[in-house]
Amino acid sequence: MRILVVEDDAPLREAIVAVLKEDDYAVDEAESGDEGLYHSRQGVYDLLILDVMLPGMDGLEIVRTLRSGGSRTPIMLLTARDSIADKVAGLDSGADDYLVKPFAVPELLARVKALLRRGGPVNAGGELRYGGIAANPKTKDAYVAETPLHLTVKEYELLEFLLLNREQILTREQIFDRVWGFESETTHGIVDLYIHYLRKKLAPFGRDAVIQTIRGAGFMLKEK
C-alpha cells in the first residue's frame, strides 16, 4: 500500500512518514499544495494525507480538484482547526476523514487502516483476490489456488497494484511510479520486463492471460 503525505511542517511530516513506514506502508511526501496535487494526480496512491493549510494550493482545494476530476482515492485531512464548521467544510469538499492536530499515533494508524479497508477490494481475511489470484498485503505473499507464487519484492508490488486496480487500465507511467517510485534511476521499460516475469510465474496455473496488454495504453488485470 502506498500513501502520500502532504504537510509543510517538516518535523511533523517526517514523523508521520516514519510512523507509516514502521507500519510497512510505502510512503511519498510533499511539502506544498502544488507539489501534492501533482503527485496525487498520478493515480498511484491508496491514500492521501493532506494538511489543510499549505503553501500554494491548500488541502481543501486539492480535494475539490481531485474529486471533480473523478478521483476516488481515500483522503484524510489534517488540521489544527477543530470547530464543527471546519470539519463540515473538510468533509463537504470530498474528504473521507478529518484528524485534528495534535493527534495520537495509534489514532492516526487506526484511521489509516480504516480508510484503506474502505477504499480497496480487500476481503474479510485482509487479502486481495481476483481471477483465482490472491495476495496478502501484510505478509507480501501471493497465491493461485492456495499454491505460493514465490514472487520477488517488485513482482509482488506489481501484482498488488494490478489487483487493487483490477479491470482498470494502468499506464506504464502509473505502474512505474507506484512500484519503482518517482526518483528511481531506471526507465519505464522495466515495467514490461516485470510484466513478463509475472506472467511467467502465473503461466503454470493458466493465469498469465489475465494480465492483458492494452495496445497504446498500458496493462489491465481482467478475465477474458
Structural class: alpha/beta
The CATH topology of the largest domain: Rossmann fold
Instruction: Specify the biggest β-sheet.
Output: 5 strands, parallel
**How many separate helices?**
8
Instruction: Please state the second-level CATH architecture of the largest domain.
Output: 3-Layer(aba) Sandwich
Sheet-strand content, in percent, reads: 15-25%
Total domain count: 2
What is the overall pLDDT average? 88
Outline the structure in words.
The protein has 224 residues and is an alpha/beta fold. The chain folds into two domains: 2-119, Response regulator (Rossmann fold, 3-Layer(aba) Sandwich), CATH 3.40.50.2300; 128-221, Winged helix-like DNA-binding domain superfamily/Winged helix DNA-binding domain (Arc Repressor Mutant, subunit A), CATH 1.10.10. Helices cover 40% and strands 21% of the residues. It contains eight helices and twelve strands. It has helices at residues 10-22, 33-40, 59-68, 84-92, 105-119, 153-164, 172-179, 189-202; strands at residues 2-6, 26-30, 47-51, 75-79, 97-100, 128-130, 133-136, 141-144, 147-148, 170-171, 211-214, 218-221. The strands form three sheets. A five-stranded parallel sheet has the order 2-1-3-4-5, with helices on both faces. A four-stranded antiparallel sheet has the order 6-7-8-9, with helices on one face. Helix 2 (33-40) runs parallel beside helix 3 (59-68) and helix 6 packs across helix 8. It is elongated and about 55 Å long. The mean pLDDT is 88.
